[in-house]
Amino acid sequence: MRLTKFAHACVRLEKDGKVLLIDPGTFSEDAAFEKADAVLVTHEHPDHVDVERLRGLQVPVFTTAGVAAELNDERVTVVSDGQSFDAAGFAVRAYGKDHAVILPELGVPCENIGYLVDDAVYHPGDSFTQPDREVHTNLVPISGPWFSVAPAVEYARSIKAEQTVGIHNALLSDIGLGMMERWIGEAGGRPYHGLTPGQSLEIN
């Protein structure tokens, strides 16, 4: 399976001629959407879902009730914590239900579902929800209004993964990106890959 990172939190997974797209948001390049066979969306914030471009894909979408209401399309399937399903030949399991808190007085902003794909790649969306098993590649958010360093490092340490890949990084300058990659890479205790948009990894 090949993993290709695009801007911010968007990731493409490819295997056996099929493409699974995760969190194609308004920051995502058009190339991310090309030939997608199914889409997973973690939550309704526009940096994770571009509603207009997603409507144009005409492929199955698996997501939260909030995103489903925005898309208002029969191709959309609402999923919830603990549910397992097939998406274009990829085995997917859903984890969690809450977006990380940005400000305490605002409470939980919305529902958020993390996805484990083929028991190999885990995308948490905007949360530090952990899967209940080991994974090959853990996608670790490294910036955002809800983000802080200590929980991110603990999240990277806690999940038994062969490697980590930084995501959710469009808000960082080059200096900030380098700083956060050092924190997550060195303190997180797992081999770390800071992929730029368009770069890929092979997941064995």
From TrEMBL:
Keyword presence, Hydrolase: yes
Family matches, as SMART domains: Lactamase_B (SM00849)
Occurrences of domain Metallo-beta-lactamase (ranges): 7-168
UniProt keywords, alphabetically: Hydrolase
GO terms for MF: hydrolase activity
InterPro entries associated with the record: Metallo-B-lactamas, RibonucZ/Hydroxyglut_hydro, UPF0173_UPF0282_UlaG_hydrolase
Protein name, UniProt field: MBL fold metallo-hydrolase
